[in-house]
């Protein structure tokens, strides 16, 4: 189940990163749909991962916070909000994701789990860059942050997938 949850999250981050990539020339509607589904998948993957961690652990709380961040971004896309409200929700959603990844990073440090450290550091850094990009209207920062986050989530999914 951990593999499934990690890959759901990773696929969600990749879809969201693809949505931000201008070379694909998405219409606004297509981009928003991809962002919506990417964040729904991320929230689902993080929610499942939270359920698989020991109650009260930093990883459980971190995954809950990350899922809340993705849900905040989903709300910004689904509800009828102004552009400034959408921007604020996007910034806050990415900040929550960064906070959650940082909490999981701390648990990785405590356990000496190098892959957990790297994957969560990449995700936190990517989310921070996305939040700052949204705040400053820097699409290049948001794009870079999306792909950095996707790299971290994919690294985590590969790590929990056993070699056969």
From TrEMBL:
Pfam families, alphabetized: DUF6944
Classification via InterPro entries: DUF6944
Recorded superkingdom: Bacteria
Protein name (Swiss-Prot/TrEMBL): Uncharacterized protein
Species for this entry: Halobacillus salinus
Lineage: Bacteria, Bacillati, Bacillota, Bacilli, Bacillales
